[in-house]
Amino acid sequence: MSEPTERKYTKEHEWIDVEGDIATVGITAYAADKLGDVVFVDLPTVGSTVAEGRVVGEIESTKSVGELFAPVNGTVLEINDAVVATPELVNSDPFGDGWLIKVTFTELPALLTYAEYSALVGE
Amino acid sequence: MTDSPDSTPADSAERYSPLHAQHVEAGASFTDFAGWQMPVRYSSDLAEHHAVRTAAGLFDLSHMAEILILGPEAADALDYALAGKISAVAIGQAKYSLLLARDGGIVDDLVVYRTGEDRFLIVANASNRAVVAEQLLERCSPFDCQVFDESDDIALIAVQGPKAYEILSQVPGVQVDGLADLKYYWSTPGTYKPVPGEREQHELLVARTGYTGEDGFELYVAPDAAPVLWDAIMETGAGSGLVPAGLASRDTLRLEAGMPLYGHELGLTTFPVQAGLGRVVNLKKDGDFVGRAAVEAGAPEGSRVLAGLVSEGKRAGRAEYRVFDGDTEVGIVTSGALSPTLGYPIAMAYVDPASASEGASLFIDVRGTRVSASVVPLPFYKRET
Q: What is the pLDDT of residues B344-379, one digit of tens each?
């Protein structure tokens, strides 16, 4: 995957790494830190169709529940089974081993750059 | 994803603990709690939780309210103002009590420390400081005593966990007679001398109390002495596994220990008996007290009661989630989490009495999914003694 500075972002604190027609999606370190220790991750079924902006999963910490939104229209190609088995990967490596889903898409919506996202969270 | 557990205070009158610099230095994330910017966690909620269960954690509770009642009739005044028989509390003893409304609802839950014949320190929830101070002032006014809101002049540090005694007894400059023999829910005065040989000395009130289900101590101290004392305890305890612990871990610790939290399990529409706190209301004491008539009349027939719920898997019921018995809605969750110590989801909920018996098989609506839950007695976790 590319460096976080090269990736796209959403206002919902997700990052998108684009390679060809495949988008890998995870949550940002900022979001993981705000959630606290992630203890449960619920991800969509491989092969399911997802629509931009719709809830496709949940990320639950000891303290609260966050929703995972699909950042693009597409089809779920793969989910990260490692993160389902070991949810703390979201905290320990949010931009790497803590990725959540891969989605195949035909068109990318308007997304934030790293600089725009960083400005949004004030970091 | 969307979620912002760290709410932004509505007004700019944010308050900071005297230990704020210590928390920033330790890398804390902050949350607004009753207008105070308090540490929610330093590194990991789970690590802090486990540290308190297996070694020790250090909590800053300086946001809590401390109200002093002084005078020859202070004990009588508190017998009238609170639900318990405060006049029967021995000097040095502490008592968990309730400030009831006239209609029997709970204005706040609090701890009363008797620190002298005519002297009581009442520790109340930060969110209820104003109402508790105002109510105590009003209720005590017919008696020969005075009420002082000392909250701004008292900091509170809690060291909690099986190694709490080992650590506190070794902190340089902390002098507390009889610390080893101090019983649960008793307190004793002590002193803290930050620099050996110097005249500077601070008074402490050291209590064997807490809100975690573990052994531990709470230290009341002047705000200007709190930072050096915090640093000294951290330094002493580092080798024993002591970590600073935030409010997130405090919440999961108290939940496992089945301890109610005001605003969740307790509130103005809750009768003590519903919360399992009937024993806290002393109907045998002489004379009237605020809420007596309503408590004697009893909670309405069929009022929901506080129950413990446990589930399998990882999905926890959380505050406001609905509870079902078959297809009938029978209750509502007030607190819940995946228990860090037990490894399964636990919740406290108000449930119709017919569905609240031990072993009853219920469901929690977890965001549209029915999750099975069994009624169990509280607490969920009890330390080995």
A: 999 999 999 999 999 999 999 999 999 999 999 999
Q: Give the tokens for residue B78.
A: 């508190």
Give B13's pLDDT tier (boundaries 50, 70, 90).
Answer: confident
B5 vs A: CB within 8 A? yes
Q: What is the DSSP letter of A52?
A: T
Whether the CB of B1 is below 8 Å from some CB of chain A: the reply is yes
Are B84 and B282 a contacting pair, CB within 8 Å?
A: yes
State the smallest CA–CA distance between residue A37 and chain B in angstroms.
6
Domain with A38, as residue range(s), is 4-107
Rounded CA-CA distance B381/B385 in Å is: 12
Beta partners for A52? none
Give domain status of residue A45, yes or no.
Answer: yes
A62/B contact by beta carbon, under 8 A: yes
The ipTM, to two decimals, is: 0.86
Any chain A CB within 8 A of the CB of B49?
Answer: yes
DSSP state of B136: H
- CB contact (8 A) between residue B45 and residue A62: yes
Among B364, B371, B267, smallest CA distance to B321 is for B364
pLDDT band for position A4 (50/70/90)? Answer: very high
Domains located in chain B, CATH noted: 15-62+154-245 (3.30.1360.120), 299-385 (2.40.30.110)
Q: Is residue A119, in this structure, part of any structural domain at all?
A: no
Q: Does the distance separating the beta carbons of A12 and B1 come in below 8 Å?
A: yes
Q: Residue A66: inside a domain, yes or no?
A: yes
